[in-house]
C-alpha cells in the first residue's frame, strides 16, 4: 500500500468536496434572492386578489 498515493487521493477528495460545497452555496445564494422576490410578488398578488379594494384610495382632509 502506497501511503503517499493514498494521502494524495484523500487530499484530492477533500478538495473536491470543499469546491462542490462552495459551488452549491453560491448557487443557493443566487437562487435564494430570486426566490425571495418571487415570494414577495406572489404575496402581494394574493393580497390584492383577496382584498382588491384595499390601498386603491387615499382619504386626505385639510
Automatic annotation (TrEMBL):
<dbReference type="InterPro" id="IPR025906">
    <property type="entry name" value="YjfB_motility"/>
</dbReference>
<protein>
    <submittedName>
        <fullName>Motility protein</fullName>
    </submittedName>
</protein>
<dbReference type="Pfam" id="PF14070">
    <property type="entry name" value="YjfB_motility"/>
</dbReference>
